[in-house]
Amino acid sequence: MGCTNCSSNGLPKGCKNNGACGTSGCEKLSVFDWLANMEQPSAEKFDFIEVRFKNGRKEYYKNSDQLPLQMGDVVAVEGSPGHDIGIVSLTGELVRLQLKQKEIDPKGGTFKKLYRKANQRDIDIWRKAQEREEETMYRSRILASDLKLNMKISDVEYQGDGNKASFFYTADDRVDFRELIRVLASEFKVRIEMRQIGARQEAGRLGGIGSCGRELCCSTWLTDFRSVNTAAARYQQLALNPQKLAGQCGKLKCCLNYELDSYLEALKEFPNTSIPLHTHKGEANFQKMDIFKGLLWYSYREGGSEWVVLEVDKVNKIIAENKKGQKPQALEDFVTVVEKQPSFESVIEQGSITRFDSKGPSRNKKRRPKQNKRGPRKPNSNNGKPKK
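-> structure tokens emitted (388 positions)
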């Protein structure tokens, strides 16, 4: 995604401006400031800011000195230890809403300090530290492999002052990386911090394109990772195919939960599909359903190759009669006529491949000039001059 700064300064998309352009168009998990054009009373200004770091990591700081900050400003904040460099992603009332959503009390919580706006020296050190991240990640993977550690280092993030590096890794089992920390500290001469993340967090940090053709939800806007189980696929009548239901992280796709509430609400009117329908014609079992159209298909257990489509209320009626000991004559008495959808056939498939080939003799032969039966034309005696 590009932003207005990418087009105004002539740089292509992905200008590596690190989101400092102020429009929040190049960053992950960006939030639109819909209060940007509204000036709030000075007495009611909320003195907290949201600062964004690498890969959408965000933290909140208190602007105790009332510095005039805007979205996109590069600031120096308190680190552990030292200081870190980040970009202001939100200010004002929207930060209050974000804290409320994350259940953070602005009065009771302890917030790190906001030092100042970053000067050019801070930015230069920050940029040099960022340039070392990729090389550090590749080198750390080699060192972990030499120590035969069953772990995968997926990302490295340097602190703004360049004195600390956070290594993000994934592992199936517990890993003893004490020797790795000593090797990394002697190799890169910085303070080392190891952070274990899950497969979903790893996909969110690395990014990618999903099977839908869009960027991954976890790397663009999704902030909370809810548990997804196969029951969500069953409720939506999806085939339990791991290759189609799993995302790039190897877990079930987060989008299986997006429409689950709508399916659960619609399924409240549906009967238990394990209950057979008893009629004088025979016993019928459930085959499939269309949840949003409210239709169910049943077939007779004996000699029933054809399926009978019924509405939900009629199926509930038959089940209620069966509980009373009553049986209808046949399911065909309750059949719902389903309108057939118009079929659209391909025009190309209708035509034959050889429809443009000529079946008769070729007409491309050169025609012979016709001879005049009266003989050759006599020359004009007037030498081509018209007669008077």
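The first strand starts at residue 48 and ends at 52.
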